[in-house]
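Shipment paperwork, digital attachment
Item: protein structure file
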Amino acid sequence: MKKSIVISTFDSVGVALVPLKKDETIEGVTLSEDIERGHKFALRDIHIGENVKKYGEPIGHATAEIKAGSHVHTHNMATNLSGILEYEYHKKGVQKSEKPRSRDIYVYERKGGEIGIRNELWVIPTVGCVNSQARTIVSEFIKYHGSNLPGIDGVFALTHPYGCSQVGGDLARTRMILQKMAKHPNCGGALILGLGCENNRMDIFRKTFGEHTPERIEFLVAQDVEDEISEGVKLLERLYDNAKYDKRIKKDLSCLKIGLKCGGSDGLSGITANPLVGRFSDYLTAVGGTTVMTEVPEMFGAEQILMNRTKNRDVFEKIVKLINDFKGYYLSHGQPISDNPSPGNIAGGITTLEEKSLGCVQKSGNSEISGVLFYGDAVTERGLNLLSGPGNDMVAVTNLACAGCHMVLFTTSRGTPLGGFVPTVKISTNSELARKKCGWIDFDAGKIADGESFESVMERLINLVVSIVNGTPTANERSGSRDLAIFKTGVTL
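Attachment content:
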């Protein structure tokens, strides 16, 4: 097993793949102190003010003289990031290989040609005040039918704290996200449950709902009926009578839209799980499928790499807007754009936002970027897309699902049980986490650090994705972790 890695020949630091001890000679240098797994050590002397390089790119600068073999982290280096930048269009050719072999999958075909990988019934509150009623409607429905519901993959209340005391953009975003959820192709039928006095009014919700399949959507206002539970169960019955006859049909992977997300990252994220997911993204887009990467603040410092891979100037300009709009959002709230690595990130060896970003964008692989989506946009371009949104795990997974993703590949080093309202595939960067949290983790990418080839691990990941598409539940589905969060920027009344 390798003890360390130097990612690029241009790097001035190596990364510990296992805990390293003082006085060990690693990568040609003798360590002057212990180095924890995922943390960096200097490959040569680095002078104060000099850029520190990892992934072949600057991840910050030295704030003190750093001797070869020393630990490199927050005590002796800092970010280079500042404000809004101007960018130039420098398209670099993306090498295209022979189209790889696709795989057959079995999915639900919806009206209009969309496909779903689940056939579920959802109760979606318009306001958090009826969350308990939504859960009770589901439990009463299941109590009557039993837990085995032929023809569907489950019934779930997708609760949230939004919908009242909201105005302006926040209210509009809440309504839009809930509407997109109700029309998601993984949903065989949705009951929209309102209270009756909330800002997110049912009459406006219905008026702005847009094109949909009427027999797949029901609406109920709790204050308008004597017993909202029994009425809700009746409406679920009607939805079930339509959804239970849906059958899976054979398609291939080209119809899939898959979101890419990382959370609870550390120094191994950009070495194992993220580049593995990047290879998967390249594979899926090569067979005609679609991937979507979000977390715009975790592109800061690595954005030029993405800009150089755009399909055309129009996509480049949209990425510039994506980046600078989000930087403007930070600055308008008086926050530095570099204030991103979490305490867990830092404990795991990530020092600056540039380092986090360069590891994060490994999930994009090497494919051409074909589209850019802003908040509320749905995927229309096949291939790799970028989606506006923050790095917050729950918000990002919700955004990806509402953009049309059927599932999300979620890499993690520290571990998280979080799951969205679409299957959320947790991929660990290290084998220790996969063993310790087998109830959270679906796939172990730590085998790469142990010496297994990317090709071998990728084959197993493709097999897992196909299995999940065909109905195998993810860890978050088994545990009942189905959460959502909506990006909030305004005031609460």
